[in-house]
Design a protein that fits this description.
Elements (H helix, E strand, L loop, with lengths): L2 E5 L6 E5 L11 H5 L4 E17 L3 H4 L6 E5 L4 E6 L5 E8 L12 H12 L7 E15 L3 E2 L2 E3 L5 E2 L6 H21 L9 H27 L10 H6 L36 E4 L2 E4 L8 E6 L3 H14 L3 E6 L5 E3 L4 H5 L6 E4 L5 E5 L6 H13 L1
Parallel strand pairs: 2-9, 13-14
Antiparallel strand pairs: 1-2, 3-6, 3-7, 4-5, 5-6, 7-10, 8-9, 11-12, 11-15, 13-16, 16-17
Length: 381
Amino acid sequence: MYDKLFLSCTGPAYAIYSDSHACYPTAKSTIRQHAKIPTTGRGVIGGHYINIYFQADLSHFLKGSQCGWIQILNPEVFGALITVNNRDEWVYHVAYNPSNGESPEDFSEERCCEIIKKAIGVSNLDIVIFSILPWATAEQTATRFQDNRVFLIGDAAHLMPPAGGFGSNTGIQDAHNLAWKLAAVIHKQAHPRLLQTYHDERHYAVELTTKYASDLLFSVIKKGVSTLNSMDHLAVTVGYKYNSTAIIRENSDTPHRMDQLELNGRPGTRAPHMWLKYQDKCISTLDLIGENFVLFTGEDNCLWRTAAQNVSSHLGVPINVYGIGLQGDCVECEDSWEALYDVTSQGAVLIRPDGFVAWRTKERVSNPYLILKQVMTSILW
């Protein structure tokens, strides 16, 4: 089963595929199989479960409380109740054991209703079953995320254990990375080879996240010490680094550590957050990112602004420019942007629409227009 999104362009449409359900073996991408894209990983590495999506009014039990999930353990059932709307739509996960002869076919609607009633502790509970789906804790990654004009994202590209809650984040990160590149190619602002950087950038990040999620699962099951236990949980979520032709590496680039969070304006990393005062409002640097390329400079940025305008006109690619400083477009509220982004007042930082630093110059350059044109051309063409 899969969801698909077609984006119109000249010639055949680009197609993005992501499986509908974050589970295994349900999440077997038909398109991935047609494209003959193999996968790597350890496959099923944990238990087998039934996902029961149902409707039942449980609001009076919660009495206004909010919850994400509730683990239920009583003499008759053991499982996890997960909220959908915290009122009358829920998902209940219950385990089954194939080695004992149990299978998904054993879970009829009638049996699932009985399981839910025992879990809640109410024998006359009104229940409507929406779906009953099997899944298993698995580790699986496609060897490539692109096949000509077809792109895999989410569960079609990778499966990982639910430990750590990385699955949805990773799928969203896939789409976030690919969306601006597709838009640039479709609007003829970039060469189609830019799309190849989707796999180049995301595959390594996905492998890291998948292995970390699997390690977390094993550490819970076996209570052992793993090689990834020292890694910062947040570093796995937002601290990964991209390396492709859509990133202009620095000459002094050293290996990027993945065991701790390092956001300091380095090309290939997320642009760090800092508070700014902009148009009489307190905003984050991240509020200025997301639609176009963004160039952060010091407050005296006339040359950079002119250069960006000329490069934008030449390439047909919008570049938003913000001077940061007491006399600039934005005023620092707390931290120094120069220290945070590791530049001088004459430096500049170019940020992609997905919020990743594409290029940085720490010092003044002699010809901002020529440098910025070379940088943008290298990224897009």
